[in-house]
Structures are given as C-alpha cells and as structure tokens.
Design goal:
With 339 residues, this protein is an all-alpha fold. It has a single domain (20-328), classed as Farnesyl Diphosphate Synthase. The chain is built from 15 helices and two strands. A two-stranded antiparallel sheet has the order 1-2. Helix 7 (146-172) runs antiparallel to helix 8 and helix 11 (253-260) packs across helix 13 (281-293). The longest helix is centred in the middle third of the chain and has 27 residues, at 116-142.
C-alpha cells in the first residue's frame, strides 16, 4: 500500500477538551458491563494464575479495542451478548500478545507498572499469555462464534508476520515505503480492523456494511501507528525525541522518507548511526534533526492525515447516530493525541 492510493479528505481538529472518556459516552454503561464480563473471562482456580491476573487487571489501558467493538456494533444497530464476547475475545488475545511482547523485548514496565515478566519471570509470563490466548479461543468456541474467531485469528497471524518482517528489516535496514506500510498494516491496523469487523458482525449487519467498517478500522490503524512513529521524534509539545524506535533499529516513515531524499554520503552517515547497538542522546538528536530538515516529519503527518481522512470518509455510508459520531471523533482524537 502506498500513499498515492489514498484520497485526501478533511479531518476536523478535535476539541482540545474532548477526551477518550467523552468519546466513550454513548457506550459508557456497556463498557462497564464489558469490564465485568472481561474479568469473569479471565478467572482461574489456580491461585498463582489468579494472583497474576488480578495484578494484570490493575494495568488499566485506554480500552481502545473494546471501545471500537462496542461503538461499531451500536452504530450498526445494537449491542448484544455476542458483542461482549467479541470485545472480550479481542482484548484477551491483545493482552496475551502484550504479555509475550514484554518477554521478547525484556521490558520491565507496562503502563507505569512493573511488567509480568519483571515480577514473576519469563516462564510465568509466557504461560499467562498462553492462558489468555486459550481463554479467548474457548470463549468463541463454546458459543460457536466461529466467524469472530476467524476474524481475530487472522489478525493475530498478520500481527506476528508484521513483527517478524520488521525484525528482518531491522537487521538489513533495507526497508522502503511499500514494506513499511505492509508492516504497520499487519502489525497494528489488522487488529483495529478486526475490532470494527467483529463489532459489525455481532450486530448482524449487512455484508457491505461489515466490509466498510473493517476498512474503516484498517485506515484508523494506519493513522494510529504513524502517530506513534511521530512520537519517537518528539513532535509532542516541546518534548525531546524519545528515540525508542531508533534504539531498536526500526525504520519508520519519517526516517525512510528523509533517507530517500539524501545523497549517498549523508545516507551512509545516518545509516551508520542507526546500525549502532546503543545510541547516545547526541546520536538520537542528529538523526532527529536530519529527519526534520529533510521533511520527514511533515510527510509522515500528511500521510497520517490522509489515512484519517479516508477513515472518516468511510463512515459517511453509515447512518447518522451518536455512535457513528463517536467513531469519527475517535479518528480525530487519534491523530491529535498527545500520548
């Protein structure tokens, strides 16, 4: 996928006072019910496992994915018991991938708290991830939600492929824009697309509507990931560049664009810095300045807004409702978010 295939559509500036909690207003009571349902789906009779799960539940995230499932179902008609299962299935599998990611990345923090592997070591963390994965599978199978299971399983497959492709390219540093879009499509956008697809399916919407909302989730996911990539260059308030992607040798859109617009000597100098095992703060500053001066940040921002515009455009075929408005607000909130 390349940016030339994306139509430009206006994305309204989100009200600075608008929070994710405001966006979730049309499904506030349903989100509360989802949390109860989700906690129940994670219960275990094994004391150690239950203890770890209770700790995990304290790591409160934005609950973006359940929000997408619930809002999409509401926009298509109504939220049902199937919708809650769909949201729980997505969140169980997503949480399992996060726990496993922390093991792979040797991360000791998650959402401001110690990670599972930091407190209970890798073996417990891996087994917890396996448990969450199996709970999601059984939740779908016990209720014969084969279509939902197929949607989410395909997303998890794509996420794994995207991560592995990114690892492969980090070794060679030969990534181009087409490969970058493929990576983020698989690694990030696939799961958001699964959320909106499952939400629409749980509401028994027409096949065309399901396809439209699956595409909406895909475009939103692409914009979401590019926004994350921009954070690495300190484009929030006056913060310094984070350089996390650079430390991990991840070639993101701003850097790819800048390298494509530099001469051989300059490109070689920057690539040499990216190849370093550990970068200093000066290394990060040099690469960040290079990317900014070559227009990489502006290009990535414009590309992100094109994806967001396409996402909002897709919503125009869905009947007006508070839930549809909330989905549109979620798009603008995503591209203007500060963290």
């Amino acid at each position: 996928m390349t940016t030339s295939t994306i139509e430009t559509a206006p994305v309204p500036r989100v009200d600075a006072r608008l929070s994710l909690d405001d966006i979730q207003r049309p499904i506030r009571s349903e989100l509360k019910e989802f949390r109860r349902y989700f906690r129940g789906a994670m219960k275990s009779r094994v004391f150690l496992l239950d203890q770890v799960i209770q700790y995990l539940l304290r790591q409160k995230g934005k609950q973006l994915r359940p929000t997408l499932v619930l809002l999409t179902a509401r926009a298509c008609g109504s939220i049902s018991e199937t919708t809650y299962r769909a949201a729980a299935l997505v969140e169980l599998l997503h949480t399992a991938t996060l726990v496993h990611d922390d093991v792979v990345d040797e991360a000791d923090r998650r959402r401001g708290l110690f990670s599972i592997n930091a407190l209970w070591k890798n073996k417990v963390a891996v087994l917890l991830g396996d448990f969450l994965l199996s709970r999601g599978l059984l939740l779908a199978l016990d209720h014969k939600d084969y279509d939902l299971l197929h949607i989410v399983s395909d997303a998890v497959k794509r996420m794994s492929e995207g991560e592995l492709l990114q690892i492969e390219k980090a070794r060679k540093l030969d990534i181009d824009e087409e490969t970058y879009f493929r990576i983020i499509s698989d690694k990030t956008a696939s799961l958001l697309s699964a959320c909106t697809s499952c939400g629409a399916r749980s509401a028994d919407s027409e096949a065309d509507t399901q396809a439209t909302l699956a595409a909406f989730g895909q475009e939103l996911g692409m914009a979401f990931q590019i926004r994350d990539d921009l954070f690495d260059y300190g484009v929030v308030d006056v913060g310094k560049p984070l350089g996390i992607d650079l430390q991990e040798k991840k070639m993101t859109l701003p850097l790819i664009y800048a390298l494509n617009r530099s001469d051989k000597k300059e490109r070689k100098r920057i690539i040499a810095i990216v190849r370093k095992g550990t970068k200093t703060s000066e290394d990060i500053a040099i690469v960040s300045r290079f990317v900014r001066e070559k227009g990489g940040l502006d290009y990535a921002h414009e590309t992100m807004m094109r994806y967001a515009g396409k996402a909002i455009e897709l919503l125009n075929s869905i009947p007006e409702s508070p839930a549809r408005d909330a989905l549109a607000n979620l798009v603008t909130f995503t591209v203007h978010r500060k963290k």
